[in-house]
Amino acid sequence: MSSSSAAPRRGEKAEAAGARLPMREALVAAAFQLFVQRGYEQTTVDDIVTLAGVGRRSFFRYFPSKEDVVFPDHERCLADMTAFLASGTADEEPVRRVCDAARLVLHMYAENPDFSVQRYRLTKQVPGLRAYELSVVWRYERALAEYLRARFAGRRDGTLQADVIAAAVVAAHNNALRSWLRSDGTTDPGATVDHALASVRSAFGAVDPAPVVPRPEDVVVVVARRDAPLWRIVQEVETALERGRY
Question: What is the tens place of the pLDDT at every residue in 221-240?
């Protein structure tokens, strides 16, 4: 047999795969091809790298586990969301800002509808992947909540408001996203998510990030000796306000 007709070695297969697709994308494509053909549980990392024509070390350079290859774009999206929130200005309405941040997740899914629908079907079939996805969603929610907590710092119940609003944004976004995925990506995802997030903004309105100040009718009563110095009385008033004794 001539050398030109010999079977390609592993290194040659890797080069061929790299010529077709970047290695990261080649690994994802190989993984999903096998998940569809064999099933998720029946597919091993060795199967994936063999089909992609690369070594195990190459796989783990990009993905810590087999679960991560199912969600290859979430780390990038989470980083983009965090950067987007950090780039906001102090005069921006915070609920609008977190709604706009949630739309970054939608854009990630909408970039590749076929892949997103395929992944949605897979996660429905594999409980372990569903649990993994929920952990990813929780990280998005925490990013939104941390931004809102910083904006509501000093407010009465600011932390509570931040957590509730973040959870509402994620719930509304995911409800609309799943509706789009169930349609096999045939509906307009932007319109669906916009409608859902509008409900959140309607429910919470424009939330003023400024700290709450005491109302004019609030009264602070401090008992002091008649001969107490003025600085001592002021100190007692400040202490009472800080401790909420009014």
Answer: 666 666 666 656 666 666 66
10 Å Cβ neighbour count for 230? 8
pLDDT of residue 59 exceeding 70: yes
Judged against a pLDDT cut of 90, whether residue 212 lies above it is answered with: no
Residue corresponding to tokens 């080649």: 26
Quote the tokens at residue 8: 């390609």
> How far is the C-alpha of 35 from the C-alpha of 73, rounded, in Å?
18
Residue whose C-alpha is closest to residue 132's, from 45, 40, 30, 33: 40
Could you give the domains of the chain?
3-65 (1.10.10.60), 71-204 (1.10.357.10), 214-246 (no CATH)
Which residue has tokens 């401090």? 222
Query: Contact, 88 vs 97, CB < 8 A?
Result: yes
Residue with the two structure tokens 């925490």: 142
What are the Cα distances from residue 232, in Å, to 108, 223, 241, 245? Answer: 59, 11, 14, 17
238, two tokens: 């400040």
Please give the Cα distance from 61 to 45 (Å, whole number). 13
Return the percentage of the chain with pLDDT > 70, whole number: 74
Find tokens 């906001």 and name the residue: 88
The share of the chain scoring above pLDDT 90, in percent, equals: 67
Residues 6+ apart with CB under 8 A from 202: none
Cα–Cα distance, 25 to 77 (Å, whole number):
16
